[in-house]
Amino acid sequence: MSGFKERIFSGAQPTGNLHLGNYLGAIKRWVELQDDHECIYCVVDMHALTISPDPAELAQATRELTAAYLAAGIDPKKNMVFNQSRVIQHAELAWVFNCIARIGWMSRMTQFKDKAGKDRENASLGLFAYPSLMAADILLYRATHVPVGDDQKQHLELTRDIAQKFNNDYSARIADLGIGVEMAVGDETVTGYFPLTEPMISGPAMRIMSLRDGTKKMSKSDPSDLSRINLIDDAETITRKIRKAKTDADAIPSELDGLAGRAEADNLIGIYAALSGISKEAVLRDFGGKQFSEFKSSLADLAVAQMSPITQEMRKLIADPAYIDSVLKDGGERAGVIAEQTMKDVRNIIGWLQN
Ligand code: AMP
Ligand code: TRP
Q1: In the β-sheet with 38-43, what is the strand arrangement from edge to edge?
Q2: Listed GO molecular functions (predicted)?
Q3: Which end of the chain is more exposed for a tag (fewer CB within 10 A), N or C?
Q4: Where in the chain is the domain with CATH 3.40.50.620?
């Protein structure tokens, strides 16, 4: 039990090449959650700076990602949709968290190690502190749940560590000000200012793999365009990529066990399951014993039927940048109100004089 109001926060980076993994692992579920939750969906343009994009490309990618959110069905009136840099409190809270988080915690982040590569000394400080800004995104709204793909799990664990250390370090001050909230931690009930946010990572789509190599995740940065289905691909391209997707020579198994050691087969079955909203077991019940050629043509039809309306809507929205900008402005204004309430408390807690 937690005394915090249930609130969903999630975000994606505007870095181009939005793909099926982003859609199934994140955005599609965000749409489902908006019916019965208060949701905040952010385009994290401050995080995008860690890969030093060209300014014109960053602005364009920000609008495109926003268009993708809206085209997928996120309602910008019901929810808050905005780009992160508009609500400057994200940067302010990230600084506070830079002073809470330890260098050792950041050094263990696998995403940092992957992205920094061999020349770690030359990686930007922003790339290193990336998870601290992500914790700030979430905790600025005291969000209780964060729907993301599997690759973000470690960052969400770190977010909890930061919240917990902040709550501990300032426990006396939080109690004095009377602004703590009760929450359960294991068997105990503790009081803190920030919630210990729960990740929402489940279902068949949490880790969509490359269509060319079932051991690598589908990614924006893969040099092979055949490895991913982009949200902007037309029907013909989607069909061609699925037809060319790597598989093995065996037929489709009837049971989950039969997918063991067959990463590419497992991935395509998972994509089918996620697109149609059924379990992988159910897909195998329908296709068990059939050849991949037959399955791929059903999968292509399904993908085109689901993705084409989104792609078309996305193109329409991208052609109206003034509308996109007005959505981001409105979302930013509403998010900014919550953000400022939190920061007022935080400044007070940590002893920053404000008047
Ligand atoms: P990013 O584009 O890296 O900002 O990611 C946006 C969201 O998409 C995050 O929730 C990721 O976890 C999710 N995501 C990215 N790639 C994949 C993938 N291959 N499979 C499932 N989810 C993914
Ligand atoms: N790091 C996330 C990604 O690459 C994007 C992100 C930034 C995010 N801040 C967030 C996701 C807060 C969820 C909540 O996918």
Answers
A1: 80-83, 38-43, 7-12, 145-147, 198-200
A2: ATP binding; tryptophan-tRNA ligase activity
A3: C
A4: 8-202+320-350
Pocket test for ligand 2, best of 43, 44, 106, 162 (most atoms within 8 A of CB): 44
**CA–CA distance from 318 to each of 30, 78, 90, 187, 331 (Å)?**
20, 21, 26, 50, 18
Instruction: Report the alpha-carbon angle 136-172-177, nearest 5.
Output: 75
In tens, the pLDDT along 281-334 reads: 999 999 999 999 999 999 999 999 999 999 999 999 999 999 999 999 999 999
- Reply yes or no on whether 220 is catalytic: yes
Shortest-distance atom of ligand 1 to CA 149:
12
Is 8-202+320-350 a domain of CATH 3.40.50.620?
yes
Give 127 Cα–ligand 2 centroid separation in angstroms: 13
Distance CA 317, CA 294 (A): 35
Known active-site residue 115: yes
The correct answer on CATH 3.20.20.140 for the domain covering 205-317 is no
Of 77, 113, 216, 217, which one is the catalytic site residue? 217
Whose CA is closest to atom 3 on ligand 2? Answer: 12
Indicate yes or no: pTM above 0.85.
yes
